[in-house]
Specification:
The protein is built from 5 helices and 3 strands; from the N terminus they run ααβααββα. The chain has helices at 3-12, 17-29, 34-41, 45-57, 76-115; strands at 32-33, 61-63, 70-73. A 3-stranded antiparallel β-sheet has the order 1-3-2.
Length: 116
């Protein structure tokens, strides 16, 4: 699979394109410090660190404890498993709340019809 196709897949999973580019760069080149990433990706540091923070929140990038930190991408397999788990949890929540939501929806519609 080529890089552009991988980018599209990651974006379709809910990652911003810029974040996906940072993730793919780290995944293919290995751990990097922020300065290295900024230079290699030709990104402003502020923009890069915002992306890294987004990726860390999603569990796709890990930062080392030292200063300056070194950033590492999780494997693509772990990333995809993480997305899968999130989607399964969302689907389970919808399934659990479906009856309640439908009941509230019907009550709202009835009320609006009665008022008109």
């Amino acid at each position: 699979m080529n890089r552009n196709k991988l980018l599209r897949v990651l974006v379709s999973l809910g990652i911003r394109r810029l974040d996906a580019e940072v993730y793919l760069h780290l995944a293919t080149t290995g751990p990097k410090k922020g300065r290295e990433l900024s230079n290699e990706l030709k990104m402003y540091k502020q923009q890069l660190y915002r992306s890294l923070k987004n990726l860390q929140k999603k569990g796709l990038v890990k930062a080392s404890p030292e200063h300056p930190a070194s950033f590492t991408a999780v494997t693509i397999e772990d990333a995809l498993n993480s997305f899968r788990e999130v989607r399964l949890e969302e689907a389970q929540l919808i399934k659990e709340k479906k009856d309640e939501l439908l009941s509230r929806w019907k009550a709202t519609i009835k009320k609006e019809i009665a008022e008109n």
